[in-house]
From TrEMBL:
Biased composition (Polar residues): 1011-1033
Lineage: superkingdom: Eukaryota
Keywords from the UniProt entry: Hydrolase
Swiss-Prot/TrEMBL GO biological process terms: phosphatidylinositol dephosphorylation
Family label: In the central section; belongs to the inositol 1,4,5-trisphosphate 5-phosphatase family. Belongs to the synaptojanin family.
Alphabetical list of SUPFAM superfamilies matching this protein: DNase I-like
Domain SAC: 170-519
Leading EC class: hydrolase
Protein name: phosphoinositide 5-phosphatase
EC number(s) on file: 3.1.3.36
MF terms in GO: phosphatidylinositol-4,5-bisphosphate 5-phosphatase activity
Species: Coemansia interrupta
Hydrolase as UniProt keyword: yes
Length: 1058
């Protein structure tokens, strides 16, 4: 079982790492891959002081002329690279130094060479692309690998000299024995998928892995871009033949071979929603579920290859298990049926696309028990099962496409009656017969396909570990046994040996998967092997259960951080700068591509209600919310989403800083969800359709952001991420800071920043510093920053004050002269001077200052401090895709602030992703032709569109771009912005232009509402919204994978059964 191997060479200055194929040294035409940061040793500095992108250079270079610049590293040959990662200010390359061959899926018996060897990673190392400190063998020891006594979660990465490799935990995780790779074929795909791609003449083979099961896709991003974009035909051939980059799959590979048969069990864990047991539950907005595993059983016998696939995964609804878990299964369902439906549809849509049909097998309890399980409403395992069934019914898909079987495993097998599992198998027999299995000849390329599997069993329990593994084992042996019984060339003895081996392999498979998700081996392994359980099994399960308790409550967070770092999730963006490939064609291709945006996209407008409210540390007391969240009385003006930013949602005391209590936020989640739907029905009456639901919420001590959406918008929402950034005490405390949200509305990116900046009437510089610290320091997944969005909105207590004596400020308010008062507004002056929020716009303020009142009244501060009334609570925005329609305050008296509200319109674009990918491929292909032929002619994208729009002679018609439906006629659009010029720089910020007769009252409040005013207020005046820019959201980010399918375009038209 041979593998492609490489020698590692390094160059000191400018710093570079070279991977040299072992055979290239003896070939006159040999080539190698050189990897460096743009600028060599200056890679860190090249990224910029603000933590910007790191540019990576990849080159295929000839050994004969260029290798002499490098020196060999003192180490054995390696198996390839697992990718690149920027971490804590340095960029590292991960190399697979030790691996063990598990089996060969291409050979008749799994042992002899068949060209499809699967390796298990045993050790990886990380070398710096900017420093040679880890080149020495003494500094390359990585604790946590399979041969080491240390565990990667210990964080002990030091060597004998006390130097710690920052990537020691990551290297230990990759070398923990849970990862596999195959140099010569695509291990991320099933045998059926590989065969069909081969039959269809797909030549990408292992170079186009399935992103769902490729765990190091983020680390290999620049390698994929280099191969697709920068490489010409010859370079791509050499790159593919060498196999420099290795795709990793997490899971399990088990093998058994007898005299007349070979059996393999291959499990692939999904990378979509990965993490540890109690930290990752349920579904996300992309449709990924926790602990989702695709398990494939392969049997090679009598010249035939048989394969059968099953999947497991967490219940695909939004649910969590908070707090310390002491054996109970208290669950909290966090979204309603309607709010959950789009994510559940995306999950099942992915399964239907991959496997054709689905039978959902639910092993949860059907009744809550008096002991060992919470009995409060909606908190039991049984309640979760009922909610799951409701979601399956809500999809309204034919049972032939998505079937459902509930089987209370614990109730059925109580008392050791494990044979009761076979009653489930009898119920599943019709779907198993309908779904069938994959069968092909072993000889020949491509193989002759004799049968195709056209459906899959999706099994779950609460953890998708022990009960699930037992049931999947029984299903697998039933299907394999049925196949072997109908194969005349296989004897009874061979069949019995295969089934006995399969039982043990499923037990080992369950053990490995359990270690990945729960940190211990699987329970009920004796049941999986023999179908019985004894005292030995009971004691073993008790020991593992105790170990799981300790692991889940005290050790999982360290491992979760490592997983997030590998996948670019969680808080990893705070310590990782994004890596960008140095692509000489990117600017030209992107410029050509932008020309066709109107022809491959459709546009619409989405409305949002924005609110910021400082609660002064007060909990909700149950009082009526009045007109606070009142809505327009026109269905056309109904907000599609509502974002509420709280500040001081809890008292800013020491206890809250140490451990913020989410109880107040949880209360507001329930209260606001109910209030929004009440206001919706009140405003529209019988015309009110659908409901609002909480989509996401997050909290940083006193700052909280709650995001609600109408059910009609939910299918357009994807990629939602939350991030936090502290600015209190120089970034050490969360008393000040922000909670930010990134969300994609179709193909338009929106960022909402709920902020609370430094207090104090004269601390303007501190507030400016907080703004810049958040703007530069906050990162979302893959290093996306606040400024990297089509539109960004800040809403919060920005704390900018009025620079006037108290008596003068109050006199101007009493006289109804807010325009004069605004001349002394600190935020307006900072925006004009360009020291903070320089590229942001604020709609003209037409209401009186919102701070500070005597709590529970409309009277400005009468305490000893007598604060100057100020507009501390603000909403500012940037980006041509957003404009404000209304800007107002409400008169509710829950705090010493008044809530500030805004109605915004977001220009949302949806791009035909398939057409875009084809155009990108063609643009790059033609660039290479132009370069190789020496032709200077421009590539015109219009002709490419015509070609791409007419596949197989039939023209595909995209709907024409729809202009924003709610834009006012007669608005003259400014000149589109460019990299060198922005339209908003042509005039002073809108916040500095204030009408002389402003309006104060909530425009959506009932006219009969009585408001007690302590200060004379000016009369109403209509708002004048700022114009909507014609600037379009970016069509494509060429630094990311343009061929990745995010699953957002799943059609939910009725599907006819096959």
């Amino acid at each position: 079982m041979d593998s492609k191997r490489f020698f590692v060479y390094v160059r000191s200055y400018p710093r570079a790492i070279a991977l040299v194929p072992t055979h290239a040294l003896s070939s006159a035409a040999g080539t190698f891959l050189a990897v460096s940061t743009l600028g060599g040793n200056g890679g860190s500095a090249a990224a910029g002081d603000d933590g910007g992108d790191v540019r990576i250079s990849l080159e295929i270079r000839p050994v004969a002329s260029d290798l002499q610049q490098f020196t060999p590293l003192d180490m054995d040959s390696i198996y390839g690279t697992a990718g690149l990662l920027d971490y804590q200010g340095d960029t590292y390359m991960f190399l697979i130094t030790q691996a063990q061959a598990q089996c060969d899926l291409g050979s008749p018996d799994g042992r002899t060479a068949g060209g499809q060897t699967v390796y298990r990673v045993q050790q990886t190392i990380a070398l710096s692309l900017t420093d040679n400190i880890y080149d020495s063998p003494a500094y390359r020891r990585m604790p946590g690998a399979m041969h080491d006594d240390y565990h990667y979660a210990s964080g002990d990465g030091g060597d004998m000299y006390g130097v710690t490799n920052p990537c020691a935990a990551m290297c230990g995780f990759l070398g923990s024995g849970a990862f596999y790779f195959a140099p010569s074929f695509d291990i991320t795909r099933t045998r059926q998928s590989q065969s069909l791609r081969s039959v269809l003449g797909d030549t990408r083979l292992a170079h186009d892995p399935d992103g769902k099961f490729q765990w190091n896709g983020g680390l290999l991003r620049v390698f994929g871009e280099y191969r697709e974009h920068v490489c010409g035909a010859e370079e791509r051939r050499r790159f593919d033949a060498a196999g420099y980059a290795v795709s990793l799959v997490e899971g399990s590979v088990e093998a058994w071979w007898g005299e007349a048969a070979a059996v393999f069990v291959v499990s692939r864990s999904s990378s979509m929603r990965s993490g540890m047991r109690f930290l990752t539950r349920g579904v996300d907005d992309e449709g990924g579920v926790a602990n989702e595993v695709e398990t494939e059983v392969i049997v090679r016998a009598a010249g035939r290859e048989f394969a059968h696939v099953q999947v497991r995964g967490s219940v695909p609804v939004f649910w969590t298990q908070d707090g310390v878990q002491l054996g109970s299964h208290r669950v909290r369902i966090t979204r309603s049926v309607r709010a959950t439906l789009p994510a559940t549809k995306r999950h099942f849509g992915d399964l239907l696309m991959r496997y054709g049909r689905v039978c959902a097998v639910n092993l949860l309890k059907t009744q809550a028990q008096e002991s060992g399980e919470a009995l409060e409403a909606g908190s039991s395992e049984a309640a979760l099962g009922r909610f799951y069934r409701a979601m399956v019914d809500a999809m309204r898909l034919p049972e032939a496409l998505v079937g459902y079987q509930a089987f209370d495993y614990n109730g059925e097998v109580r008392g050791g009656n494990f044979d009761r599992v076979h009653t489930l198998i009898r119920r599943l027999t019709p779907s198993l017969a309908d779904h069938r299995y994959y069968l092909a000849t072993c000889e020949g390329q491509p193989p002759v396909v004799l049968a195709l599997q056209r459906g899959v069993q999706r099994t779950n329990c609460i953890d998708c570990l022990d009960r699930t593994n037992v049931v999947q084992s029984v299903i697998s042996r039933s299907v394999v046994g049925e196949y072997l019984r109908h194969t005349a060339a296989v004897s009874v003895g061979v069949r019995q040996a295969v089934l006995a081996a399969l039982a043990g392999m499923w037990a080992a498979n369950g053990d490995r998967l359990s270690r990945v998700y729960a940190g211990t081996g699987a329970l009920k392994t004796d049941v999986t092997v023999s179908g019985k359980s004894g005292w030995a099994g009971f004691l073993s399960d008790a020991t593992k259960s105790l170990s799981r308790l300790v692991q889940s409550n005290f050790q999982d967070r360290g491992k979760q951080s490592t997983i997030d770092l590998l996948l670019g999730a969680g808080d990893s963006a705070l310590v990782c700068r994004p890596l960008r490939l140095h692509d000489p064609y990117a600017a030209v291709v992107e410029r050509e591509l932008e020309k066709c945006l109107p022809r491959i996209s459709a546009a619409r407008s989405v409305r949002g209600m924005l609110c910021t409210y400082n609660m002064h540390g007060r909990a909700y007391d149950g009082s009526a919310l009045g007109s606070w969240l009142a809505m327009p009385r026109s269905a056309a003006e109904r907000p599609d989403f509502v974002a509420v930013a709280f500040q001081e949602i809890v008292p800013l005391d020491v206890q809250s800083v140490v451990s913020a209590d989410p109880a107040n936020r949880r209360t507001w989640e329930r209260v606001l969800a109910a209030e929004l739907n009440r206001q919706h029905r009140r405003a529209l009456g019988d015309q009110a359709e659908g409901e609002y639901a909480l989509v996401s919420s997050e909290q940083l001590v006193g700052v909280a952001l709650l995001f609600f959406a109408h059910e009609s918008l939910l299918p357009s929402i994807h990629g939602l991420q939350m991030a936090k950034h502290k600015t209190g005490l120089g970034g050490m405390a969360g008393t000040k800071g922000c909670v930010a949200m990134h969300v994609m509305l179709n193909d338009t990116s929106l960022c909402l920043v709920a902020a609370h900046l430094a207090a104090g009437a004269t601390n303007v510089a501190e507030r400016n510093a907080d703004f810049h610290a958040i703007r530069r320091g906050l990162r979302f997944r893959y290093g996306r920053r606040i400024d990297d969005h089509d539109c960004t909105v800040w809403l919060g207590d920005l704390n900018y004050r009025i620079d006037l004596p108290n008596d003068q400020a109050r006199l101007l308010i009493a006289q109804g002269q807010p325009a004069s008062l605004m001349m002394y507004d600190q935020l307006s002056m900072q925006m004009a001077a360009g020291t903070a929020f320089s590229n942001y716009t604020e709609m003209p303020i037409t209401f009186a200052p919102t701070y500070k009142f005597d709590p529970g009244t409309d009277t400005y501060d009468t305490s000893e401090k007598m604060r100057v009334p100020s507009w501390t609570d603000r909403i500012v925005y940037r980006g041509g895709a957003v404009r404000m329609l209304k800007y107002y305050r409400d008169e509710i008296r829950l705090s010493d602030h008044k809530p500030v509200m805004g109605m915004a319109e977001v220009h949302v674009v949806e791009v035909d992703k398939g057409l875009r990918r084809r155009i990108v491929r063609e643009l790059y292909a033609r660039r290479h032709v132009v370069e190789e032929d020496g032709v200077a002619a421009e590539v015109r994208v219009e002709s490419l569109i015509e070609v791409a729009e007419e596949p197989q002679g039939k023209k595909k018609k995209m709907p024409p771009p729809v202009p924003p439906q709610r834009s006012k006629p007669g608005v003259r659009l400014p000149v589109p912005s460019s990299d060198a010029h922005a339209w908003w720089d042509d005039e002073a910020p809108a916040a500095r232009r204030l009408p002389g007769n402003p309006a104060l009252i909530n425009p959506f409040a009932p006219h009969s509402l009585s408001i007690d005013r302590s200060t004379p207020l000016p009369s109403d005046q209509p708002d004048t919204p700022s114009p909507l820019s014609s600037e379009q959201p970016s069509l494509i980010d060429l630094s990311s994978d343009p061929f990745a399918d995010d699953g957002s375009g799943i059609s939910w038209e009725p599907i006819e059964p096959i």
